[in-house]
Design goal:
This protein has seven helices and eight strands. By secondary structure, the protein is an alpha/beta fold. It has a single domain, classed as 3-Layer(aba) Sandwich (Rossmann fold). It has an eight-stranded mixed β-sheet with strand order 3-2-1-4-5-8-6-7.
Length: 241
């Protein structure tokens, strides 16, 4: 695994301090609970497309391994496990990894959780690697992407999501969401947001080929929706070039 440190201790401490509330849909992670079903729809479609799966099956990841980087308390790891994967979650904050492990055990799910850098995984490789709303919090985005790619098994699938660096995201995520308490204050640094072009370039430099970029927008009538509007947030799928 890549040895470069990408964890920002202040970011780890910020999110670790929220560990006890991750699973409360009305708590500090309420926004993530609203985002999760939409992200899962995207991930499921990407899985089916990549492995030529049947959208009607309940376990499209049966026999496959999955790694969620920046897993928090396991909001994505648990659905991936229910889709059939052998799941590993890793997070910069030990408090989050502990909360995730406790929640998975209470639900009877066998998920392996770790705290620390990606090199904690040694030489393990995974069929699916995900990093949802993480890259905007690291100290070295290029090094972080290199670590994700190194963790990917041959023929594997990499999926990321992150806010776009636009005037809309600055207003909505920093100006409104944090100011009103929808997101805990200090969660975002707009200057660290990446545009789709930024992230595509990082993935290309790491030997990946982007196969899809889909916007994640907010509709007052429908909530979070997938589509062409990438101004707020977006998801990226990539495979080895």
């Amino acid at each position: 695994m890549a040895k470069a440190t990408t964890i920002d201790p202040k970011e780890a401490a910020h999110f670790g301090g929220l560990a006890a509330e991750w699973w409360d849909p009305r708590g500090s992670s309420a926004m993530l609970h609203r985002l999760n079903p939409v992200r899962l729809r995207y991930i499921r479609a990407a899985i089916d497309a990549h492995w030529d799966g049947d959208a009607a099956t309940f376990d499209p990841l049966a026999g496959k391994t999955a790694l969620d980087v920046g897993c928090g308390a396991g909001l994505l790891c648990e659905p991936l496990a229910r889709l059939g994967a052998r799941v590993t979650g890793i997070d910069a904050a030990p408090e989050n990894a502990a909360a995730a492990a406790a929640h998975a055990a209470a639900g009877g799910l066998d998920i392996h959780y770790l705290a620390g850098e990606l090199d904690t995984l040694a030489d393990k490789r995974f069929d699916l690697v995900t990093a949802m709303e993480v890259i905007e919090h690291v100290t070295d985005p290029a090094g972080f992407v290199a670590g994700l790619v190194e963790a990917l098994a041959p023929g594997g699938l990499l999926i990321l999501s992150t806010p776009n660096r636009t005037s809309l995201s600055k207003l909505a995520l920093v100006g409104v969401a944090e100011a009103t308490g929808m997101i805990p204050r200090g969660t975002h640094d707009w200057d660290k947001f990446l545009t789709p072009e930024d992230l595509t370039a990082l993935l290309k430099d790491a030997g990946m080929r982007v196969t899809d970029v889909t916007g994640l927008a907010f509709s007052p009538a429908k909530g979070f929706v997938l589509g062409e509007d990438r101004r707020l947030n977006y998801l990226v799928t990539a495979v080895r070039a």
